[in-house]
Amino acid sequence: MSDKQKTIVSLTFLKETCDAALTSVAAADGVVPDDLAHLQTTDFAVIHKDFTSLLAYLYSATTKTAISLKPSSPTYSASLSPLKDLSTNISNLSHNVRLVQKAHGATVLKELQSAARSVISAIQGLAETLLSDTAATKEPSDVYLSKVGEVHDAIDKLRSGTDGLSSNNVTAVRKLWAADQSSLSDALRELQEIPESGDDNDFDDGWDELGIDSSSNKLSPAELERLRKVESIVKLCNLMHKTVVKRVFSAPLQNAPVQQEINSIVDILANDSPTLPAAVDDLIATVYSPQEKEEMLDQLHHLDGVIDRIKSHIDSLFALEPVGDLLKEATGTGKKTPDVKRWFGTCFEEIKKLIVQMSTTLQDAQ
């Protein structure tokens, strides 16, 4: 068998290995499979370290493969070793994900699954392109260069300091909450700009040409008053969400030993986070003129339910014995900061009060 034929076999095997690895990664559910049972007590810190090491090996092997199989002057014999390394480490990467246990946390498992999929899929795309180029009878293209870039970009993203792979479940959940925080900030900004947009008489919105009076979009004094009340609610929701990121998912909780009780609750909070920006957006949509009081009431009721669920899960987290002491450390030394549990109790109470007051006013106006 010629070196070129061996390369084609190796590329085919790599492609098949990627298929099997993607299936294995998708099946990861926090239960270590029987064939890896001897590794089922592996600490997550070890899993994380091995994952990042495998990324480095895959990056290097991808570069070597690309150099050896440059379409204009391929060196097939030199490609065999890095292709073997790619297949071996792709399998190892999928096995690494399967070692994540339920106790380690569902959110960080999902993050590792997504990370592994992005890298494996990129390498699979490169293998398919190189296989096509190697077997082609016509002049090959330079498409393989973009495929190499996709692999490198996928790995670089996971190795970056800020947006890289989370080192534990709390960090993974914090990352999700921080991402949703920008949506809440945008929502508050939109709300604050509504009165200004209604006063912009120089803007041609096209409604006049259709025979519709665009001046009716300007808020009445009563509507403007409702907007200000909604703004107060949204500001507090924004502050609450931001403080969860800063003071709950803080370094002491991130660095705490793995505890399934803690991870189970923060996983629930991971699901809670996007529901708040969504509920706030729906409420803000009712503020535009003409306002429908009944729809505004419905959205206030929905937001109230979202806040109640988040409060319930935050309270459950605080009820765990080690959490209170850990979060006290988050305030730092020499600083006079309110007790975090008391702060959230007051914040949730104030949000609830504002929602009830506005709901009562709307009901009385009907």
Automatic annotation (TrEMBL):
The entry's localization annotation reads:
Cytoplasm; Nucleus
Nucleus listed as a keyword: yes
- One Pfam family from the record: GCIP_N
According to the UniProt entry, where is the signal peptide? none
Keywords for this protein: Cell cycle, Cytoplasm, Nucleus
Q: What is its main location?
A: cytoplasm
Query: Does the keyword field hold Hydrolase?
Result: no
**Any one annotated GO CC term:** nucleus
Domain Cyclin-D1-binding protein 1-like C-terminal, chain residue ranges per copy: 204-310
InterPro entries, per database record: GCIP-like, GCIP-like_N, GCIP_C
Identify the residues that the record assigns to the Cyclin-D1-binding protein 1-like N-terminal domain, covering every copy. 52-196
Family, similarity comment: Belongs to the CCNDBP1 family.
Q: Which PANTHER family match?
A: CYCLIN D1-BINDING PROTEIN 1 (PTHR15492), CYCLIN-D1-BINDING PROTEIN 1 (PTHR15492:SF1)
Name of protein: Uncharacterized protein
